[in-house]
Amino acid sequence: MSFTEYHLRTIIKCKQHGLHPHTVQAQAQAHAKENHRLAIEQRAKTMENQTPALPSFNTTTLFISTLQMIDIGYPSTPFNICLFLFILAVLLIFVAGCTPPGRRKTNPVLLPPGPKPWQLIGNLPEMLKNRPVFRWIHKLMEEMKREILCIRIGNVHIVAVSSPELGRGFLKKQDAVFSSRPKTMASDLTSSGYLSTALVPLGEQWKKMRRVVTSEVLSRARHCWMHDKRVEEADHLVRYVFNQCAKGVSGLDLVNVCVAAQHYCMNVIRKMILGRRFFGEGMEDGGPGDEEEEHVEALFTILGNEESYGFNEEACLINVRIRQGRDREKEANDLLDVLIRLKDADGGPLLSEDEIKAQIVNVYNTLPKLGVNQFLSYSQELMIATVYNPSNAIEWALAEMLNRPDTFQQATEEHDGVVGKDRWVQESDISQLNYVKACAWEAFRLHPIALFNVPHVSVSHTTVAGCFIPKGSHVLLSRPGLGRNPKVWDEPLKFKPERHLKDGSKVVLAEPDLRMLSFSIGRRGCIGVNLGSTMTTMLLARLLQGFTWSMPPNVESIELIESVGDLFLATHSLALGRPRLAPSLYPDAQT
């Protein structure tokens, strides 16, 4: 029997047999002193050859102190019992907060620098005071002149990194240590209970779904199989923008570049997965209908939230298709057919209905978001989807190019030299469109859609760049911090596509050295790099080849201002578009 249990039983017997409570209190104090003496001796033995550690607390001593705070001579009223339990709970939480994982033993290596945390709650008060949190984190790093920062929320350490060298230390040198994901409410919801790929912690489910995605959904063979569907949507993009231009006087009208870009990306994904462009009928000019706009908005608000209309519509279609596919065999026509037809070794369905639904959401999110995890929920909390990453980059690229007309001229000359004016640019031309790709890549660098990458969680204690990283730490690489790092980039805040063309080599939308972060690297890097880069380049190439762009009337320059709470343009860019190729290449308006 433990001393504490013995002590409590003695008190109860005292009250039952009418003994004086001060006798019990004296016994408790004597036992407390003896226990305290033994604890000191034990600590002296264990700390003999170690660096002095932070003060620790003996649970038994704290428990006895709690008993002594209550007058045991009082009757056992509900109030006294509740008071006792409350104080006990507070002390137990205090002990847990004072001895976080990784700090129970003294470690001579220090944590990364950061603001001093409060007991129990860490830096939560500062986060609540400084919104949006991601701007506060970057401001702290600038003020402290550090490229690595540690803040604490509860007993979880959040490590932010803005240096390519440090980033490689986490994601290349120690990729195996930082390959897991955190378990949060947001990731649980968006992955339908950790059934997809991007947000799933290391384990058998992640291995299974990654194997399915890499071999069946986003493989090179599947990419080629879906080529015609992507080309069809590129043609629809031209028709939609052409109709927008034709609405105004003299064939000119303002085009909302953001809407056009998102419309194209969303249609590509819907066509690839569901085999259809719209949920409803769409608009006469080829634009999205109310259902499509609501669907995009629902995905943007929270992907995987089944209470939103957009996903309910999609889930309904998926349910019908699963039943049809399981009832009878048919030739695969889209990615949903591919997932339904997968079989295990026994000939049964490889994926459950829930896994198929979760994976469909994950394909929408080929570049999973969470620029910040749940603990940094005041900054960007949404998924970086294939819809938003390319469309955001191209909207920023066109806005920057409007302020630099010479970039339009160079892009036009490249198009005319590689493709000519008698046909539309195709995916087979992308390898030769270096300047166009440089414009897109520069937009990714200067204007990333997410503030941070998806969090990486350390599966064990480790050291990076001389800093101790405890097990369970959440590591966030700052996309603006990497892409705008003055130690890496000359004039980092200027839009200069030519910086990517200096050595004369082909421009590839990838950065293995982490000088910027778009598709990430390592075993948790984006699986859909090929799809994402193809969609981005084709979107910009068609817009630049097919139309001449200029500023709206009475506008001298485009205001390149970020929103306060994220990295999107504060005001969506509107531009005047004019068809620049032969009329016979454009589809008829309003068809």
From TrEMBL:
<feature type="binding site" description="axial binding residue">
    <location>
        <position position="526"/>
    </location>
    <ligand>
        <name>heme</name>
    </ligand>
</feature>
<dbReference type="GO" id="GO:0005506">
    <property type="term" value="F:iron ion binding"/>
</dbReference>
<dbReference type="InterPro" id="IPR017972">
    <property type="entry name" value="Cyt_P450_CS"/>
</dbReference>
<dbReference type="GO" id="GO:0020037">
    <property type="term" value="F:heme binding"/>
</dbReference>
<dbReference type="InterPro" id="IPR002401">
    <property type="entry name" value="Cyt_P450_E_grp-I"/>
</dbReference>
<dbReference type="InterPro" id="IPR001128">
    <property type="entry name" value="Cyt_P450"/>
</dbReference>
<keyword id="KW-0349">Heme</keyword>
<protein>
    <recommendedName>
        <fullName>Cytochrome P450</fullName>
    </recommendedName>
</protein>
<keyword id="KW-0812">Transmembrane</keyword>
<dbReference type="GO" id="GO:0004497">
    <property type="term" value="F:monooxygenase activity"/>
</dbReference>
<keyword id="KW-0408">Iron</keyword>
<dbReference type="Pfam" id="PF00067">
    <property type="entry name" value="p450"/>
</dbReference>
<keyword id="KW-0479">Metal-binding</keyword>
<keyword id="KW-0503">Monooxygenase</keyword>
<keyword id="KW-1133">Transmembrane helix</keyword>
<keyword id="KW-0560">Oxidoreductase</keyword>
<keyword id="KW-0472">Membrane</keyword>
<feature type="transmembrane region" description="Helical">
    <location>
        <begin position="79"/>
        <end position="97"/>
    </location>
</feature>
<comment type="similarity">
    <text>Belongs to the cytochrome P450 family.</text>
</comment>
<dbReference type="GO" id="GO:0016705">
    <property type="term" value="F:oxidoreductase activity, acting on paired donors, with incorporation or reduction of molecular oxygen"/>
</dbReference>
<dbReference type="InterPro" id="IPR036396">
    <property type="entry name" value="Cyt_P450_sf"/>
</dbReference>
